[in-house]
Amino acid sequence: MRVAGIVLVHDEDVWIERVVRNIAPFCDRVHVADHASRDGTWEIVSALERNLDNVEAVRISHAARSHDLVLPYVGTDTWVFSPDGDELFDLAGLRRLRGELEAGRYDDAFRIFPAMLHCVELDSAAMTARGYLAPPALTGPKLFNFAALESWDRVYRERLHEGEPMFRDGWSWTSVARLEQEHEWDENPFRCLHACFLRRSSRDSAGVEHTRLNIAEANTYRRDLRGRVARAVRRDGVQRAGPWKLEKYRRGPVVTKDASPFLGSV
């Protein structure tokens, strides 16, 4: 059993080193695909490639090319892990999860969902994080069982999104393990701080709440004339998220959690 990470990044120089260092001990291989970053992201991931034996950094011209990096794992006993550049996973929790994967606990699942805290504040000095828990807020699958697949073609947006996966007998899109529903936050081995409302790049304006568009939203935004005009007049060029993301990630009360499992030494 192997775990292969695939991290798709674009202007992520605030968090990307911590993201990669947190997941590297969990993964046998980490592929970092930099899609046209204009800040210091490429320099950071290039240094990580030199310093960590299992990290590979590549530059890609289109987000969909990130899926090509995981196609060699199709049909093999590999879990593909897909954190984003603003998702800091619990180091100790991942070690526990690795043992559970090796023991075959989730072999019947194709996708595994983590718990998330969508952060509105992350205090590295106090080691605290404030935000909205998922659940009740939205989370998404972050581990994919490639032993379940015969193939996975025609991915147009980015890695592990839509396309045409062909499943082996016994698996489907609905073969899932919802760890965010099975465990309370403090006991969950698969959980992360999601810095989706925080500054992710040195190019972003300080002191401004940032909620980027996802890939699908961004593509629609670029095609829409009004969106192009709106983007042109923004001084920092950052695309702000629409109502969908704000509605899905801001559910339930704002809570404060211990951030030390996510920000501690690697």
Secondary structure elements and pairings:
Blueprint: E1 2-9, H1 16-23, E2 29-35, H2 41-51, E3 55-60, H3 65-68, E4 78-81, E5 87-89, H4 91-102, E6 111-113, E7 115-123, E8 128-134, E9 143-145, E10 149-153, E11 164-167, E12 176-178, H5 179-182, E13 191-194, H6 215-223, H7 225-233, H8 243-249, E14 254-258, H9 260-263
Parallel strand pairs: 1-2, 1-4, 2-3, 6-12, 7-13
Antiparallel strand pairs: 4-9, 5-13, 6-9, 7-8, 8-14, 10-11
Helix pairs in contact: 1-2
Model description:
- The strands form three sheets. This protein has a seven-stranded mixed β-sheet. Strands 5-13-7-8-14 form a five-stranded mixed β-sheet.
- Helix 1 links the parallel strand 1 and strand 2.
- The protein is of the alpha/beta class.
- The protein is 26% helix and 27% strand.
Jot down its keywords.
alpha/beta, 266 residues, 9 helices, 7-stranded mixed β-sheet, 5-stranded mixed β-sheet, single chain
Brief sketch in words of this structure:
This protein is α/β, with parallel strands linked by helices and 266 residues long.
Q: DSSP strand (E) fraction?
A: 25-35%
Main sheet properties: 7 strands, mixed
Principal-axis shape: globular
Radius of gyration: 18 Å
Compressed to H and E, one letter per element, the order equals EHEHEHEEHEEEEEEEHEHHHEH
Average pLDDT for all residues: 89
Name the helicity range.
Answer: 25-40%
Q: Which parts are unreliable, with pLDDT below 50 for 5 consecutive residues or more? A: 225-239
